[in-house]
């Protein structure tokens, strides 16, 4: 807006209790997708950490230079400066200026070994696939005994299933869920407009990157039909599909995105 979806959890006071004996970390979180950034900030704030946010690698690098961070968590693919370029810039500065090594964790929707290898080669310490599990975040940052809120998802309509997923992601906090729905709805509407413009311009070359970005957000909220649609388009491009075939698949993607907008609209009105 992955791999096997996992229950990322962010929450309010009922979501769990942080071990007060653990040190609070100062984290730099980087993501160009607003709902994704919002969730990451909420998750790490819940764990008791100080969180600074950036929307691209260049902004993140400037913030990193100006502050002392215990860890950087960055999306691997972003405009201006992507996560790998950010990691390389940080490592080069550390070596040139004798600055202590900062933990860098990559976050990607491209759940293939090659992407993880690319991140590690750039100087990252680890790379996690979206959607991320709170327990994984907890483990890697050295936290223990964090309770993960659960919410049983039963067989129901698509919009109700989405609502249940967002309820779990929001840590069963209605205010956070409402803000998340609004953020996703706004971003998805803007993405629909962008895809319409790409279709009008018959810009098939821009479709794979667009689909990759949408796939990351779709994986985050468990929209598997949308994830599959994005993967189909990306794979079609990689296999040398014609412009007409790619544009046809993009029309299908646009329809799936409109369905998501409608579902989010129903949740917004609920």
TrEMBL record:
<dbReference type="GO" id="GO:0005524">
    <property type="term" value="F:ATP binding"/>
</dbReference>
<feature type="modified residue" description="Phosphohistidine">
    <location>
        <position position="212"/>
    </location>
</feature>
<dbReference type="GO" id="GO:0000160">
    <property type="term" value="P:phosphorelay signal transduction system"/>
</dbReference>
<feature type="domain" description="Response regulatory">
    <location>
        <begin position="26"/>
        <end position="145"/>
    </location>
</feature>
<dbReference type="InterPro" id="IPR036641">
    <property type="entry name" value="HPT_dom_sf"/>
</dbReference>
<protein>
    <recommendedName>
        <fullName>Response regulator</fullName>
    </recommendedName>
</protein>
<dbReference type="InterPro" id="IPR011006">
    <property type="entry name" value="CheY-like_superfamily"/>
</dbReference>
<feature type="domain" description="HPt">
    <location>
        <begin position="173"/>
        <end position="270"/>
    </location>
</feature>
<dbReference type="Pfam" id="PF01627">
    <property type="entry name" value="Hpt"/>
</dbReference>
<dbReference type="GO" id="GO:0005886">
    <property type="term" value="C:plasma membrane"/>
</dbReference>
<dbReference type="GO" id="GO:0004672">
    <property type="term" value="F:protein kinase activity"/>
</dbReference>
<keyword id="KW-0902">Two-component regulatory system</keyword>
<dbReference type="InterPro" id="IPR001789">
    <property type="entry name" value="Sig_transdc_resp-reg_receiver"/>
</dbReference>
<dbReference type="InterPro" id="IPR008207">
    <property type="entry name" value="Sig_transdc_His_kin_Hpt_dom"/>
</dbReference>
<keyword id="KW-0597">Phosphoprotein</keyword>
<feature type="modified residue" description="4-aspartylphosphate">
    <location>
        <position position="75"/>
    </location>
</feature>
<dbReference type="Pfam" id="PF00072">
    <property type="entry name" value="Response_reg"/>
</dbReference>
């Amino acid at each position: 807006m992955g791999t096997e979806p996992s229950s990322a959890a962010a929450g309010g006071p009922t979501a769990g209790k942080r071990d007060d004996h653990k040190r609070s970390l100062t984290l730099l979180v980087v993501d160009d997708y607003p709902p994704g950034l919002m969730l990451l900030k909420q998750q790490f704030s819940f764990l008791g950490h100080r969180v600074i946010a950036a929307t691209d690698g260049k902004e993140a690098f400037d913030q990193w230079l100006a502050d002392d961070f215990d860890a950087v968590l960055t999306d691997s693919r972003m405009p201006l400066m992507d996560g790998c370029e950010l990691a390389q810039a940080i490592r080069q500065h550390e070596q040139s200026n004798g600055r202590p090594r900062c933990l860098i964790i990559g976050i990607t929707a491209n759940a293939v070994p090659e992407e993880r290898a690319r991140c590690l080669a750039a100087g990252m310490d680890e790379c996690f696939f979206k959607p991320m599990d709170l327990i994984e975040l907890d483990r890697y940052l050295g936290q223990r005994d964090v309770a993960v809120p659960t919410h049983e998802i039963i067989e129901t309509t698509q919009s109700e299933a989405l609502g249940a997923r967002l309820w779990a992601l929001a840590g069963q906090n209605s205010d956070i869920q409402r803000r998340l729905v609004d953020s996703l709805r706004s971003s998805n509407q803007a993405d629909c407009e962008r895809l319409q413009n790409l279709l009008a311009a018959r810009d098939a070359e821009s479709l794979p990157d667009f689909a990759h970005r949408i796939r990351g957000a779709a994986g985050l909220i468990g929209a598997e039909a949308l994830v599959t649609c994005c993967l189909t388009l990306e794979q079609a491009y990689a296999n040398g599909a014609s412009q007409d075939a790619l544009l046809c698949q993009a029309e299908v993607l646009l329809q799936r995105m409109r369905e998501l907008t409608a579902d989010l609209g129903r949740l917004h009105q609920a």
